[in-house]
Amino acid sequence: MASLYERVDAVAIGGSAGGIDALSVLLPALPAGMRAAVFVVLHLPRERPSLLTDIFQPRCAVTMREAEDKDPVDAGTVYFAPPDYHLLVDRGPQLALSVDAPVNFSRPSIDVLFESAAEVYTHRLLGIIVSGASEDGAAGLDAIHRAGGCTMVQVPETAHARLMVEAALRRTPVDFVLSLEDIALHLRTLERVDAR
Predict the structure, then answer these.
(1) pLDDT tens, position by position, 29-54
(2) Does the annotation count 136 as an active-site position?
(3) Which of 134, 140, 160, 171 measures 20 to 30 Å from 193, CA to CA?
């Protein structure tokens, strides 16, 4: 397991209905001092501020931030897409926010994040789809697969809403189909900055 994650520079996670519960298992597993950056798109009501940073920071060993346009990407940091903005990764790497039209009826869109991150990180990207009630993320996970990255999907039977994970499984030959607890075990192995 460890050798796989020696090459991961970034993790992209997407979810919708049931996603906060899924993140409650995954994000606390991220190890302090990890080298990878983590980008998260969760479908949230566009008219309300996101509280994800406030919810997760006290429970996690890594820094949590709401993404801001043109921010450089820092190692060991989790970036949440803000409500009603697409989150993209640009060369640098740095973050970009967009108010382009919704994709799969969603802004932020998981597909938009995953496709942009796959262009920047290619085979050094881990993409994860968890519970959700739309097909957003299926095309993006396929883009990660085609770029040579690693792909994971939550076991459909364990998801609060199965549509998102089932759509991803139909679209892409996924590397791992796992329970949230097993995905968390993998995340705990992410290489640290000081690893030799």
Answers:
(1) 999 999 999 999 999 877 777 889 99
(2) yes
(3) 140
Domain residue limits, the chain: 2-187
CB-CB neighbours of 133 under 10 Å: 16
Residue of 9, 43, 145, 186 marked active site:
43
Please tell me which residue in 9, 16, 109, 116 is annotated as part of the active site. 16
Catalytic site residue from 116, 136, 142, 186: 136
* Span between the terminal Cα atoms of the chain, in Å: 17
- Provide the pLDDT confidence category of residue 137 given band limits of 50, 70 and 90: very high
pTM over 0.85: yes
Q: What is the mean pLDDT of residues 90-95?
A: 96
CATH number of 2-187: 3.40.50.180
* 147-188 residue pLDDT tens: 999 999 999 999 999 999 999 999 999 999 999 999 999 999
**Could you tell me which of 130, 118, 120, 117 has the C-alpha nearest to residue 168?**
130
Q: Is 98 one of the annotated active-site residues of the chain?
A: no
Beta carbons of 146 and 180 less than 8 angstroms apart: no
